[in-house]
Specification:
The chain is an alpha/beta fold and 166 residues long. 41% of the residues lie in helices and 17% in strands. A 5-stranded parallel beta sheet has the order 3-2-1-4-5, with helices on both faces. Helix 1 links the parallel strand 1 and strand 2. The longest helix has 17 residues.
Length: 166
């Protein structure tokens, strides 16, 4: 039986840290679905379509890219896991401060879907401080984000800079 894991997140934008966790997950699971979340409570830089497209572009060159799919999803993640037959959720833990939130979410998901496992993976040390929120802040102030995100994301962010914001 093929083991499918969901790797959920807003990916606004996708970072090298996200990609590092994804590559690690490919060593554990047969297939990974990067599940790009629509989160009404978050104002994102990129539309859901743009975020899906950026993730697709970023994973195209990864070893094992043929075992990765990228989808948009809105709703209860455990319902999506049931519908897809996923056996696990992949979550990245960069530092101790991530653990509290992720631990509570894992317990809630376990209550809602006891058969679904949550697997925590740590990125390489070089990416432990990289968060999409940091990238957004650096971008907002005109800083260079090229060491945090792939070139296609740098280009997309530059395009946002040229677009007037409301």
């Amino acid at each position: 039986m093929e083991r499918l894991a969901l790797y959920p997140g807003t990916f606004d934008p996708v970072t090298y840290g996200h990609l590092d966790v994804l590559e690690r997950a490919l060593h554990v699971f047969d297939r990974i679905e990067v599940t790009v979340a629509v989160n009404a409570s978050k104002q994102t830089l990129f539309s859901i379509e743009d975020r899906v497209g950026l993730v697709q572009a970023c994973v195209a060159d990864l070893d094992g890219h043929d075992r990765i799919s990228v989808t948009a999803f809105e709703g209860l993640l455990v319902d999506h896991a049931r519908a897809t037959g996923a056996v696990a959720l992949v979550r990245g833990l960069r530092q101790v401060s991530d653990f509290d939130y992720e631990f509570r979410m894992a317990l809630a998901n376990r209550r809602l879907h006891p058969e679904l496992q949550t697997v925590f993976l740590m990125p390489a040390e070089a990416h432990t401080f990289v968060a999409a929120s940091i990238v957004r802040d650096i971008h907002r102030w005109g800083g260079d984000v090229s060491s945090f995100v792939p070139p296609v994301v740098v280009e997309a962010l530059a395009g946002l800079r040229d677009t007037p914001r409301p």
